[in-house]
Amino acid sequence: MGCVFVSDKQDKYIKQNSRGTSQLRLFLAFFRVGVLGYGGGPGSIPLIHKEVVDRYQWLSDEDFGDILALANTLPGPIATKLAGYIGQRVSGVLGMINAILAVIMPTIVLMIVLLTFLSSISEFDWVSGMTAAVIPVVGVMLGVLTWQFFKKAGDGIGWIKTILMSAAVLVLLELAGVHPGIIIGVLIILALVRRDGKPQAEGEGS
């Protein structure tokens, strides 16, 4: 895969293949992603690829791979990041807004409709039981995801460091009340400082 930044050649490809693209087609492409993208971000990626690469040919496979690689390094939902960037590339600022609205609208509408419906019948016992039954399922899903992150960290930096860092973060979050964003920001800064300092240290030792 090439560089994660879109080159002039790639940008020219995007503009050539998106020429004459209507806002309606852009909206429908990402609206379908929003409707069918069950399972979160990973489930949306192949749908976006199908729309922008296979169906409309707004991007090449290489372009899509580069953009996806860059999007995965940034915070936020992957579907909205891809929608915003591709929409802007295809049809400017209006296309960016259009694509983002299209990909998030189905979820927002469904949430409003479902929550309104459940609220109107919340006095029934079977509704309370149904909503309560969802809680342990969500807990298990989050537990599985937590273990996957924990295992990935253990394989990457070692299990001892992972356990010690996890314990320290737990203390900071639960006992000290530190905001998670502050902890993440500090860790990112430390990682950058360590990365920048490593070549210098190696150079001094040689």
Walk me through this protein's architecture.
- It is a single chain.
- The chain is mostly helical and 206 residues long.
- It has a domain at 8-120.
- 83% of the residues lie in helices and 0% in strands.
- It contains 8 helices and no strands.
- It has helices at 8-18, 23-36, 41-55, 61-71, 78-120, 125-157, 159-175, 180-205.
- Helix 3 crosses helix 5 (78-120) and helix 6 (125-157) packs across helix 7.
- It comes from Lentibacillus persicus.
- It is found in: Cell membrane.
Report helical residue fraction.
Answer: over 70%
- Provide a count of the helices: 8
Principal-axis shape: flat
Largest sheet: none
Topology, number of strands: 0
Q: Report how far the terminal alpha carbons are from each other.
A: 33 Å
* Estimated radius of gyration: 22 Å
The structure class reads mainly alpha
The average pLDDT score comes to: 78
The parts where pLDDT drops under 50 for at least 5 residues are: 1-6, 199-206
